[in-house]
Amino acid sequence: MGIINYENKFIEHIFLLPIILSIILVQCNFNKPKLHNDTLHVAKLDEKIFPLDQEAMFLNRSTRLDDQDGLQIYSFFSDQNHTLYVYDYDKATLINKITFELEGTNGIGLNYNGLGHIMLSSDSLMLFNWWTDHWQIFNQGGKLLKAYQKPVLENHTYLPYINYWARPERIDQSEIIIPCLLTGDLWWTNKTDFKSLMRFNYTNGRFVFDVGMPPIYNNHIWGQNPDKYVILGDFNERMNSYIYSFSIDDNIYQFDLKDHKIKTIASKRKITGFSDVVPYPDAIPEGTSMKNDYGLFEKMKRYDFTNPYYGGLFYDQYKNYYYLIYLLTQTDDEYVNERGSANSILFVLDDAFQIIGKHQFDGRESSIFNSFVSRQGFNVLNKRKCLDDEEHIYYDVFGIE
Question: How does residue 39 score in pLDDT terms, banded at 50, 70 and 90?
Fold first, then answer.
């Protein structure tokens, strides 16, 4: 069995919505973008190796790095054993391992696949489980400290969608930003009034919904991959703003957290030189569901795997850079024969969204999905080394050389 089969089977087991399509495949031709006059080379600067026990796997949906009083904390939640692994990033040592109870006072629920997390402090963390009615705050020993009712607005359930690039961000000592996703068939849901971002005060349970989806989502069908419908962004403390985009929309936006104003600040097409994302080409009768139409399921799956789109948008607070991910496409032959892997391009941008460097990743070697920013640079999972050594997680650290 090849590498791509291994990864596809793993992802299909952990993804919770009707179709899991977070792995897109192999390189396509693209126009040369306009580069910054002093474009520099993006190169591997370092390697981080973390110990891994046999109970967990190296691919995990909720993976992050948090700064706690100057200490870089790398952590991930393992769906395999309902356990949170916490590391000192700089020393690459395991400093805590919390296996959560499933039932009882401190239980997280019997169905915990797809659970997300954020480290609130050196003493506490928060778990988001979309299968339960509550969000929970625990101490570092796995004891429940507080639980909040999951917010519901205008009869819509807003799922906390935490998956690879869609991640909660702490903006101060009491408030976090959480990406949200509507339930149901994603292409029939009216998205005009849907708010895709939640500001949640974890000290008193108050919440506010902000940031609508762009009109382009109501004009076409964009497949069933949830990653294409969720807000992707990062908190910029210098600007006190959330900088975000959507995978099929051309624009990059700034949401000012003080005055709640939104403005367009960049065009991804102008940055990268790529064409706009292509919508699903066929008409679908209203009310059609993939649950009862396997043929539609296969067509939609092929569309999602063979059409490129934009991925995560990261902000580097240490260097004042942005990192923009673009996922490349797969030919029909490669899709049918399950060959290839998730190739991608990383664009490094300055604070004016001019390219200062770019790097293409071979999906057979790297998983751009498990990425995060540290002081050292942009961390990308080395999939090849992880497959060869089950006792460690390998990250390559990239930056401007």
Answer: low
Residue 93 lies in a domain: no
Domain count, the chain: 1
Stretch 361-389: mean pLDDT: 92
Tell whether 24 is covered by a domain.
Answer: yes
Q: How far apart are CA 320 and CA 243, in angstroms?
A: 13
Which residues, 6 or more positions from 53, have their beta carbon under 8 angstroms from its beta carbon? 391
Question: In this structure, how many other beta carbons lie within 10 angstroms of the beta carbon of residue 93?
Answer: 10
383 phi/psi in degrees, rounded to 5:
-65, -40
Q: Which residues contact 96 (CB under 8 A, 6 or more apart)?
A: 84, 85, 86, 140
pLDDT tens for each residue of 314-354: 999 999 999 999 988 777 777 777 655 668 999 999 999 99
Q: Residue 364 has which token pair?
A: 């057979």
* Cα–Cα dist 384/84, whole Å: 23
Residues with Cβ within 8 Å of 25's Cβ and at least 6 positions away in sequence, in order, are 4, 305, 328, 329, 330, 334, 335, 339, 340, 341, 342, 343, 363
Per residue in 177-217, pLDDT tens?
A: 988 877 665 555 667 678 888 898 988 888 888 888 888 88
Determine, yes or no, domain membership for 169: yes
Alpha-carbon distance 351 to 228, whole Å? Answer: 25
CA distance 314 to 301: 27
Q: Which domain range does residue 196 map to?
A: 3-61+159-400
Q: How far is CA 335 from CA 26, 188, 276, 342, in A?
A: 10, 26, 22, 12
- Taking the C-alpha atoms of residue 59 and residue 164, their distance in angstroms, rounded to an integer, is 10
Task: Judge whether 44 lies within some domain.
Answer: yes
